[in-house]
Amino acid sequence: MSDFDAVVIGAGNAGLTAATTLQRAGLRTLLVERHSIPGGCATSFRRGRYEFEVALHQLSGIGSEGQEFSLRGLFEKLGVIDRLDFVQEHDLYRAVVPGEYDVTLPADWAAAVDVLSDAFPGNRERVERFFQLVKDTTIWQMAAMRGLPPEQVDPTYFRQGLRPLSEVLDDHFDDPRLKSVLATYWTYAGQPPSRLAFQDLALMLFAYLEFKPWHIRGGSQAMSSAFLDSFLAAGGEVRFNTAVEAILTERGRAVGVRLDDGQEVSARDVISNASLPLTYAMLGDAVPTTVRNDLATRRIGVSGFVLHMGLDATPAELGFTTSTTFVNADLDEDRLHASWHTLEPARGICVSSYDVAPIGFAPSGATHVSLMTLQYADAWDKVSPGEYARAKFAYAETLLDRVEVITPGIRDAIEEVDVATPMTMSRYLGHPGGAIYGYDQDRTENWLFRNSERETHVPGLHLAGSWVATGGFQPTLESGHRVARRLLRHQAA
Amino acid sequence: MTHRLAPLFEGYTDIQADIDGRPADTADHTAQTSRTVASYHPRRLALTVSGIITETVSSATFRLRRPDGADLPPFLAGQYVGVFADGTNRPYALSSGPASLDHWDLTVRRVPGGRISNHLIDTLAVGGTLTTTGPMGTFHHNPLFHGDDLVFLAGGSGVVPAMSMIRDILDNGLDRRFHLIYGSRTPDDVIFHEELDAIAADHPNIRVDHVMTEPGNGWAGPTGLLSSTLIKTLAGPLDRRMVYVCGPQALYPYALRQLEELGHPRRRIRFEANGAPADPTRQAHWPADADPGAEVTVTAGGTSFRTPRGRPLLDALEDQGIRPEAACRSGECGLCRVRVLKGTVHNAEEARLRLSDERFGYTHSCVAYPVTDLDLDL
């Protein structure tokens, strides 16, 4: 008999939901995590009087009570809903390109139409038509993913779903500023409108407009701890500060893992929340050729550069009226995307102010803000370790320069600031290139062309998380749960 | 791999051609990632002691190198490394500058009744091996908001990170003013005495003032504690200069009072963490009826043992041969985080817990005290 029914490698979002789902279904589950704390990206850390949210910018999909297909339903099923307090954001975002636009989009379909037609007169019907396509595309995509026969799917979805976002925007609008405002969330997928499938932006817009953007009191760490709590309460076992060194196989089937202390743990199933390259590397020579060939055509995705800041001023004093602001240099998204391979001054930043709707991380009268730009690790390849600190702080200054556009004088309020680079992401996530969304989420990287989540080509091995699904909180949380349920269904059958 | 629906989509052919036409990425990403992490933040390093310098009667500098002579991981002047010895570990600040990574210097001072510092000074010999962590800690100059005009109040071995900061300024030719006000007991106790004075004499942007509490007859310089009057006399108006403080625990509340008397804003003062509180019962929230000498039963890692309430949990666990990961041992870094399943701990003020930690029962064992019998999950 195996030591465990299932071993889950990595306590990131997907690892936590997978482990919790399995253990609550009665499988004896071991969760193994390299770090001292669960969460992966979904964590926080302390500096001085502040706690800093590491990764959660806006949680999509929570929705209101009773709303179907929401993440809230998943949280209820996994026994964590009562352990968490959600904080709602009332705006999607404020989008700013100096000299071009400064628009705050409310988190409501009709109100968003109003704001956009005020800011860009004459576009009301076009925006309405675009939003309708966003809704239809998302609904048909979900139906198609769930296996609805193709003849029952609206052909419009097949025409529009995989087109580049830029083309669909061009179909609807003439004003480049309006297109830019509507495409703003492209950075949440890391691919510019010319390379991002329309259905991916549609899904994001739908998830935030329909289910609203949320934060969590206590940050994403509260969520990670709540999942772990539920997992442990159901009888699960966890090992922190422990890395998995190898996935053990017998006649091509995964049968357990070897831990970094040399201990071998047998299990009927192994679920990996580690990166795809690392997971398959842990199989040694047992990697099937099909997998090797597939991985060779996939591209390590984008990482990020973040300033975690504690500011000795209120959000109002700083001029923050909304939680999430995007500030870009201009309307050229391809140029911005190209700049992520370099250390040229940051051209676009996402500014998250966690005290407009407070999550509890800043003391009274102060504000926790993060500034983030995406960036590929190769921007740092030429920097020697001895030059690293200087380069890091010099680049950080360019994000501060960019945020000064909306909060002049923000530097004077800094009480704490810590900087994370793609190297930092590599260190804490163990991901190649410090990738935060897995592989580059371009049009080749979705469920229509890749199916590592459904078919790992190694019996007994299952994969969950951003490397096999989509990046981001909601997709990875759902991926872990989906993989676990598939495993359970398979065992039942 | 392609889904059966994919060919129904407009654009399918182009995307499939993109995938098929890509040059194969055959890089060993896992090995690259491991190399990156190892060159910046290795978990452990086994280093060779290549030299020992006697600094004072009670302090020594250990020069550490990699056995293969390669560069050590980069660090920020002021940071520490964890040093493993005698069944436990302690943080020691690096005294060398970050410009020369072929070696690290650890400067260690004997502590009366101290365990690891004395052990290192008594037993470490040239050619010996020392296991350390990578560089850690947040007590360093941060150019994003610290400015270029700095004051450092040091007491005793608290001068070590200041030495590294000064070397950083000199070696890298930084345009930065640095004023060290360094309190020692006697002139013989001053670490880096000659070197500091020589640097100050040669570099107008570096100023060093020594202050003695037991000056003896030969001392003509300032004496006494690092009082507000003395700070004002030596440093002039502090304005918004960043003030670093590092030294014995007793220095911290005292220095804070002095700086506050001078009207210096709290957020322009940075203290280096310095261990668990010497006497946790002096903190206001220590439960009145809890005798720190009385023993309680702690159950963890499959065993139960008795330990006094006044002993930090981390030390108590190490007494039993249980060694949670740990580094700063001052409540900050969070590596020694454990979960309290049953019972109550006293979290010292030093504990930098997360908001959710309190809710889910986590504590930083280095500054947590078992007030009642405890069940822990490690």
UniProtKB/TrEMBL annotation, chain A:
- The entry's keywords: FAD, Flavoprotein, NAD, NADP, Signal
The segment(s) forming the Amine oxidase domain are 14-488
Q: Name one GO molecular function term.
A: oxidoreductase activity
Q: Is Metal-binding found in the keyword set?
A: no
The identity of this protein, by name, is Phytoene desaturase
UniProt organism field = Wenjunlia tyrosinilytica
Could you read off the lineage of the organism from its UniProt record? Bacteria, Bacillati, Actinomycetota, Actinomycetes, Kitasatosporales
TrEMBL record, chain B:
Domain FAD-binding FR-type stretches: 42-142
Single GO MF annotation: oxidoreductase activity
- Pfam families reported in the protein's UniProt record: FAD_binding_6, Fer2, NAD_binding_1
Annotated 2Fe-2S ferredoxin-type domain ranges read: 294-378
Record-linked InterPro entries: 2Fe-2S_ferredoxin-like_sf, 2Fe-2S_ferredoxin-type, 2Fe2S_fd_BS, Beta-grasp_dom_sf, Cbr1-like_FAD-bd_dom, FAD-bd_FR_type, Flavoprot_Pyr_Nucl_cyt_Rdtase, FNR_nucleotide-bd
Q: Which cofactors are named for this entry?
A: FAD
Keyword annotations from UniProtKB, A to Z:
2Fe-2S, FAD, Flavoprotein, Iron, Iron-sulfur, Metal-binding, Oxidoreductase
Q: Which CDD domains match?
A: fer2, FNR_iron_sulfur_binding_3
Source organism, top-level taxon: Bacteria
Q: Which PANTHER family match?
A: NADH OXIDOREDUCTASE HCR
The protein's name is Hybrid-cluster NAD(P)-dependent oxidoreductase
Query: What is the species of this protein?
Result: Wenjunlia tyrosinilytica
